[in-house]
Amino acid sequence: MTRASHGRGAPVVVLILTTTLIAGCASLSANVTPVIDKALSPSTTTTSTTPTTTVHVGPCDPKMSLRWVGPVPQPGAMPAGSYMRTIFQRGLLTVGVDQTTLFFGYRIPQTGEIDGFDIALAREIARAIFGDPTKIELKAVTTDQRLPVVESGLVDMVASQVTATCARRQAVDLSTIYYLAHQKLLVRKGGSISSVADLNGKKVCATAGSTSFANIEKLAPGAVLYPVAVRADCLVALEEGWVDAITSDDTILLGFEAQDPNNTQILPAELEDEPYALATSKAHPEFGRFVNGVLDQLRASGRLEELYRQYLNRSDVGFVPPAAPPPASYQD
Amino acid sequence: MGSAPSPVVRSEPRGLRVQGMSVRRWLRTTPGHLRAWSVGLLVVLLAVGTVVGTAVQVRWNAARSVGSAGAPELVASEDLYSSLADADATASIIFLQAGRESPELRQRYESDVQEAGQHLATVAKDAGASRAEQTAVQVISSQLPVYAGYIETARANGSLGYPVGAAYLRQGSSLMRGSLLPAAITVYEQAATRLDDAYRSGTSTTEILLVVLAGVLLFVLLIGVQVRVARRSRRILNAGLLCSTAIVIALLGWTIVQLSSAQGSLVDAQRKGSDTVQFLSATRILTLQAQSDDNTALIERGSGQSYVTDFTTVLQSLNGTTGQALLPQARLVAARTGSAASIDRISSDLTTLGSTHAIVRGDDNAGNYTAAVTEATGAEADIVTQIDDDVALEIARAQERLDRSAADARSGFATLAVGIPVLIILAGLLASVGLQRRIGEYR
User: A96 at the B interface (CB within 8 A)?
Assistant: First the structure.
């Protein structure tokens, strides 16, 4: 009599299922960011950006950018040999954006389309190249991937609330400032936190790779940081009670508050300036200069202010955007 | 039957005495011999009866546990896994379709969650549950409501147009993939192992070998006694002993036939039933995971590269060209029942799934998001449903074969369980009567 050793079913199947599932989970683990010890957090902030301690030649003003000299070329008439010409011939401008930040860059669930102020601004760049603002391809990128995707050439430009810093200017070209935001705190209404001084021993959510994350470590050294990969995950963490506060730009927090106005509130204190710039690759500086030329046109024509009013006038939640965009500042 | 005077045994200082002589001397006489054999024969008969009875009991238990516990537990744990995986896949389609959400999908998601709860209750009742399994069941029962809560919040936010909805969906999906599905795998694994153990104990050579050994021993003893009796009594045949021998041979034959046929049925249950159930359930589970991957990649929109990679890995382990992939193995198993053609159909549907995936990715990568969503919630969802239906049908068929063979494996044991003591007693009686006749001749 033979034993029924034909039944390879159980172990084989279980093995395949387990390994596949584990492989799946391993690759997804980036989405589940646990509370990490404060001691470990610096590594998270600097994984994909350049080191924060850089030796500068001369004084650095993070707001200073490179000038487009002469008249900005007409749509469809990009100079031969320029990167704008390459984009034009490809037919689409690829832009890295966020899709979880209400008002700035978010996916409208009903249509699946991504919209927001940053997207509108990117469309203006597409309009300047093609004469058609729809010639654009959006790629959702997480906060800590914003600079790497520009450096690697995966996208032509990132429009995702990138705060201009000197360190970031070492890695990519940053445009002139198109919006001046401020780092603030979002807390639960009626909670015990009323200022940054109350954060000692509290859990604070911030997006990994953001300037807010690096700032809050200095401003509230006693706080326990809770980093997430995707901005909106901070709101989940606050609503679920995993954290006591969120720190981020007022523009981002504004969207959070609008999604849960009954339970959350933004504290008025401005912790830090967050000047926003568009990021392009250092490999083709003419494109960065071109973007600045287009931004100058938008400032001059009043289109930029129009976009402020269209996307960011949220008087219903007590937010009014600045009346005018910050002036352009050039290093050359 | 003459009334045999029982030997008078008196206790004396010099030892036991029987019929006025010492036991040692009495045993050397012919009636002493015969009496001793008679007692020895009865003891051996009882021992053999016990061995055979125990062997049969072990096999019967194994056959019963395959049919009554192992197979249903395996099916329940697979149902549990499938309903969880289906809930995850369905929730992701619903989210993608936000704004034009179909009531059928909503219904499907809700019944998935409800069924998962019911299957969980079934699985939790398992008597033989190990500690690991109990922990896993506890994880599922405590996390399932949390999961459903995330999905509900995702839906509520999504319908308000809030992007935090997607964050809740992702939170739910990671909970599902990070803790619910692995716990379901543990439950499944334990059920599969228990079934495997039942098969092993129901088809091992040990019991049949024991029965044959005991039978040969008894047979040799019976023949030996008859030869001795024939020599001493100068009579060649002893009807009682002869009948007893015949009964022993019949009993052993019956037992071996029963054990082998039950074994054959169990081998069938495994080869044609549960092997298929297992391969196809895994196929179903992984297909659902692939679908979730593609939908989530679209929901994540650009930051979902890990899901795209996972889709490729999953499809490879399902339908890859290597011998390690599930479908080629399932095909070999299906060939045992001549149903390889249906596996071929599933395999070709999986190839189609691969090409619709390529279209979805192509559209999405080319910036044609709406077309990608339409393809994913249309053609891709249809092909997954097609595969799921086909697989479910084949699983039902295999389960039927499994149930039938498991029932076959159990049949006949009840009669044999009564037969063994009856025949052993009968054989003992006949042998005693036969020997008593000879002993009586020395009166």
Answer: yes
